[in-house]
Write a structure and sequence with these properties.
alpha+beta, 23% strand
């Protein structure tokens, strides 16, 4: 799957550091978050790595001549994913990152609190059991690569017989909101932080 120097391919375990990197470089509502975190791995520990480790067949990377420049990843069943996170993925991270003091208002502290809270499935998970995360570096944006990645992911879900997929997006990420709506996702829930969208497959 190539075009204009871009290619989409299945994830391999050697890509894991690149997933962490792209997650951090897009972690501020699509913008570079590397200056906001002391620990560069915190975002990836929650939003990227567990998906690739548990469901590598639902993880696809976008590459160009410079290397990995984007990904789409997710899970086919959010309730099963939540149980796996609680049983397998999060306990060692909670040991590594003790709960910070309440007075600590840093971005790192917020992510560590999220690791201790755990992944809470959306109320949409019964009807739209899968969920996803898609991130592209600036050099890969605005060229149709996000749509190509999304189509590969959605086709994989259809082949697995998954009936629907949901995702969350922050209010500030107006580009992502427009993208998901162009892809056919329907806004189903509104929160203080943003929106949840769903797509029936």
């Amino acid at each position: 799957m190539q075009g204009m120097g871009f290619a989409i391919r299945p994830y391999t375990p050697t890509d894991l550091p690149e997933l962490y990197r792209v997650c951090l470089l897009t972690g501020d509502s699509g913008a570079d978050a590397s200056g906001l975190y002391h620990d560069p791995e915190l975002l990836g520990h929650f939003y990227a790595a567990p998906y690739a480790v548990r469901e590598p067949d639902l993880t696809f990377v976008l590459t160009d001549l410079e290397g990995v420049c984007g990904y789409v990843l997710g899970c086919r069943d959010s309730l099963e994913f939540a149980a796996w996170m609680e049983a397998v993925w999060l306990p060692p991270l909670r040991q590594k990152y003790p709960l910070p003091l309440e007075a600590d208002t840093s971005r790192d502290a917020a992510m560590i609190r999220l690791i201790h809270k755990g992944y809470v499935p959306s109320s949409l998970a019964d009807t739209y059991p899968a969920h996803l995360h898609i991130d592209l570096l600036p050099r890969a944006q605005g060229q149709g690569q996000g749509r190509r990645l999304m189509e590969v992911f959605l086709e994989r879900l259809r082949r697995l017989g998954v009936p629907g997929v949901h995702l969350g997006v922050g209010r500030r990420n107006v580009g992502a909101v427009a993208f998901y709506e162009r892809m056919g996702f329907i806004r189903l829930q509104t929160f203080s932080w943003g929106y949840e969208y769903g797509l029936k497959l």
